[in-house]
Specification:
The protein is of the alpha/beta class and 248 residues long. The chain has one domain: NAD(P)-binding Rossmann-like Domain (Rossmann fold, 3-Layer(aba) Sandwich). Helices cover 41% and strands 17% of the residues. Strands 3-2-1-4-5-6-7 form a seven-stranded parallel beta sheet, sandwiched between helices. Strand 5, helix 5 and strand 6 form a beta-alpha-beta unit. Helix 1 packs across helix 8 and helix 4 runs parallel beside helix 5. It is globular.
Length: 248
């Protein structure tokens, strides 16, 4: 039996990478998945790759008004919402002297404000026993130079997970955080200056006990676990998918 048969899910930032891999896995497990993304062409391609169990809605989670069509589409589907994967996010390197207001606004706008706006918008749609999975990061637990704004934004996500788990427990809604380490995605390679991608990746791999980068589908598997009844007694927690980088 599929783990999420007849369930409805929302994945933000689902056009590529971990978001797309997770949307695909949720659909494979029987859910109808609503995908959001900022690039229409990439979003259309993602929906096409998943098939009939996917609906794409273009939007920017850092702006609350862009979530209104998402809510309307889920309402029209008529089954409420069982799974939320607040995945949309991003970041870039900036050493302390180089942090600008624009850098902070962009990083926190997507990672922090966008997560809050997303969960707020869909709260009335959540069915009893629903699962919310927040996209954290191992960066919240380490001291990576020139990555402080991103790390701080992900530390905020971890805090949200704990507090929202307490707030929503009375509705039977679980809230957990998934914390990927270095994972093979377009966003990871985009962190490096042109021509420096491979040296950066080699340095990351050297710090991972399992000796390789993670794959998006490995993070997706963890999200599906947290989204399904397989983790029915887990809430307020953080699941690391990092090859041992933080814990070993």
């Amino acid at each position: 039996m599929q783990l999420l048969e007849n369930k409805t899910a929302l994945v933000t930032g689902a056009s590529s990478g971990i978001g797309l891999a997770t949307a695909q896995r949720l659909a494979d497990e029987g859910a109808h998945v609503f995908l959001t993304g900022r690039r229409q062409e990439a979003l259309d391609a993602a929906v096409a790759s998943i098939g009939d169990h996917a609906t794409g809605i273009r939007g920017d989670v850092s702006r609350p008004q862009y979530l209104e069509p998402v809510v309307a589409a889920i309402e029209a589907h008529g089954r409420g919402l069982d799974v939320v994967f607040a995945n949309a996010g991003g970041g870039e390197f900036a050493a302390l002297p180089d942090i600008t207001p624009e850098h902070l606004e962009t990083t926190f706008g997507i990672n922090v404000f966008g997560t809050v706006y997303t969960v707020q918008a869909v709260l009335p749609l959540l069915n009893e026993g629903a699962s919310i999975v927040l996209m954290g990061s191992t960066a919240a637990h380490t001291g990576t130079p020139a990555f402080s704004a991103y790390a701080a934004s992900k530390a905020a996500i971890r805090s949200f997970g704990r507090t929202w788990a307490a707030e929503l427990a009375a509705r039977g809604i679980r809230v957990n955080t998934v914390a990927p380490g270095s994972t093979e995605t377009p966003g990871l390679k985009g962190l490096a200056p042109s021509g420096q991608e491979q040296p950066m990746l080699d340095e990351m791999v050297a710090a991972i006990p399992l000796g390789r980068l993670g794959r998006p589908e490995e993070v997706a598997a963890a999200v599906v676990f947290l989204a399904s009844d397989q983790s029915s007694f887990a809430t307020g927690g953080e699941l690391f998918v990092d090859g041992g980088a933080v814990q070993v």
